[in-house]
Design goal:
alpha/beta; Rossmann fold; 2 domains; six-stranded parallel β-sheet; 11 helices; 9% strand
Length: 258
């Protein structure tokens, strides 16, 4: 589907709109490395290497709900934990304990300063809004409202499906398409007429399985081929690359979007 024909745009948050992926990766590394170091008797032959904030982040946790990320990464190390309770302390050796450790660490990092945005992405959102095209943010993070406020872009979106909505409505996390389908329903748009924008392999896979009209992958980390193989129709290094198609030659009006 041509980008200018899309009737709605659904954007992932971390790594697409905001430069918070590095904060998430750092928080995950601290949480997982702390957990692995505290294990006193791992099973014989169990891999115990620490969390790689690039490779492991992209492969196991990027785009997934927090508890799914815990399960997926630890499974790669041959570790299965009891689920635990929602209020488990960060030191608990449970899925919820590790997830809570990560969230505490991320919130501490978030409080250190203003969240930076990807200028091309925000410019595209503003252009779409100016033309009456509905836009939504879709993220597995329960910290989405805080991140949007810290980035100064909380008022730009017509709908938001975040980790809290996913939990309350019992939606399956990415790579299942449920969260994106929910956002399309909020906007009253047929998914076949909508675009999604993702930097995560799980996210573009969700777009493909949800039969969205256009799946745009954003590659900041050299994973363009992986994004395409998981479902991206189009891969860009920066969403600003899409702006000329909307504006037309020499800053003209481009094609109609309605």
């Amino acid at each position: 589907m041509d980008p200018t024909d899309c009737r709605a745009w659904l954007f992932d948050l971390d790594g697409v709109l905001t430069r918070t992926a590095d904060l998430h990766a750092a928080a995950w590394k601290s949480a997982f490395d702390g957990f692995l170091a505290a294990r006193t008797s791992p099973a014989p032959g169990t891999p115990s290497s620490g969390f790689d904030p690039v490779e492991d982040y992209l492969r196991y946790v990027d785009g997934r709900p927090r508890t799914d990320g815990v399960r997926t990464f630890l499974a790669s190390r041959g570790i299965t934990l009891p689920e635990g309770e929602a209020d488990d302390p960060p030191t608990a050796q449970t899925v919820m304990g590790v997830a809570n450790a990560k969230n505490t660490l991320f919130q501490e990092l978030l409080e250190t300063g203003r969240v930076a945005v990807y200028d091309g992405a925000v410019e595209l959102v503003r252009l779409l809004k100016a033309r009456g095209v509905p836009v939504a943010v879709v993220s597995a993070s329960e910290n989405t409202p805080a991140v949007l406020r810290a980035a100064g872009i909380a008022g730009l979106f017509d709908a938001c499906v975040d980790g809290t909505v996913v939990k309350e409505r019992r939606l399956a996390g990415k790579p299942a398409p449920d969260s994106y389908l929910e956002a399309a329903a909020m906007l009253g748009i047929d998914p076949a007429l909508a675009a999604i924008v993702e930097d995560a392999q799980a996210g573009v896979e969700a777009g493909r399985s949800g039969h969205f009209g256009l799946v745009v992958g954003v590659d900041h980390t050299g994973q363009a081929d992986a994004l395409r193989s998981h479902g991206a129709d189009l891969v860009v290094g920066d969403l600003g690359e899409l702006l000329p198609g909307f504006l037309g030659p020499a800053g003209g009006t481009g094609r109609a979007l309605t």
